[in-house]
Amino acid sequence: MADEKEYSGNFEEGPAATSPVSLSQALLAPLDAIFKAQIHAARSFLNLVLQIGYPHNPVVDSNGNRSPDGGSPYNQDFYYDVEVNGEIQRRKVSVPTLALVPVAPLAVESADFKLAIRVSNIQRHNQIQKSEGEAVKEEEDTGYGHSKRPWFLVSDPISIRGTIGPSGEGKEETGKESTIQIEVKVGKVPMPAGLDKLLTFLTQSSYTSNK
Questions:
Q1: Residue-level pLDDT, tens digit, the chain, 211 residues
Q2: Host H or E run for residue 209
Q3: Distance CA 147, CA 127 (A)
């Protein structure tokens, strides 16, 4: 059996079976990972749009000066022949590349996760941030503090502490590993208004000319 550390009030890295965390910390970890994945997906989508639609624009030039913003979009040229006054003439249709490809942003629609935590101890619940420490000290005479606020419906709220790893007690738990089961559903989301307008402008900028 692994000896569990005594919770000191600050998070300490270590094995999941011996490092106590609060229930809030345990729930926040998978949620934070999902939010980060959502942000990264948005950045990847924007990178896709820029790579397909526009050539790379260096941030600085060879002298270290900031390069001017902007740049012409990639265009795809299509040729066809028409007969004019009995003569065959070659014409060209130039269309921005971004207006020719399917653009479908994806995002996290929903996420379910299951988490098991072995409750080992309880602590007083702190609601106020450390940055408000000086202001809280001024309330000491009123009976309120970090762990007691006038809006609490429960007079003495608690913070649940425990470990998310197996304790190793008993034959049933020996050899088991702690797992967080997460199921994320990704689906198509409405196109952002700004991108929709950009695609409209690019489509309208298509033109026809002689070869």
A1: 445 555 555 667 777 777 888 888 888 889 999 999 999 999 999 999 989 998 887 777 777 777 766 678 899 999 999 888 888 889 999 999 999 998 889 888 899 988 888 888 888 777 777 777 777 777 777 777 777 777 877 777 888 888 887 655 554 554 456 678 888 898 988 888 999 999 999 899 888 888 7
A2: strand 207-210
A3: 6
Contact 154, 7 (CB under 8 A): no
Write the DSSP string, 51-83.
HHHS----SB-TTSPBPPS--PPPEEEEEEEEE
Question: 190 with 109: CB under 8 angstroms?
Answer: no
Q: Find out whether 139 and 3 touch, Cβ atoms under 8 Å.
A: no
Would the pTM of this model clear 0.85, i.e. be above it?
A: no
- Other beta carbons within 10 angstroms of residue 28's beta carbon come to 13
End-to-end CA distance of the chain: give it in Å, rounded. Answer: 81
Query: What residues are paired with 185 via a beta bridge?
Result: 110
Distance CA 200, CA 40 (A): 26
CA distances from 59 to 48, 53, 72, 93 (A): 18, 18, 16, 32
Lookup: tokens for 205: 């900028």
User: In this structure, which amino acid lies at residue 164?
Assistant: I
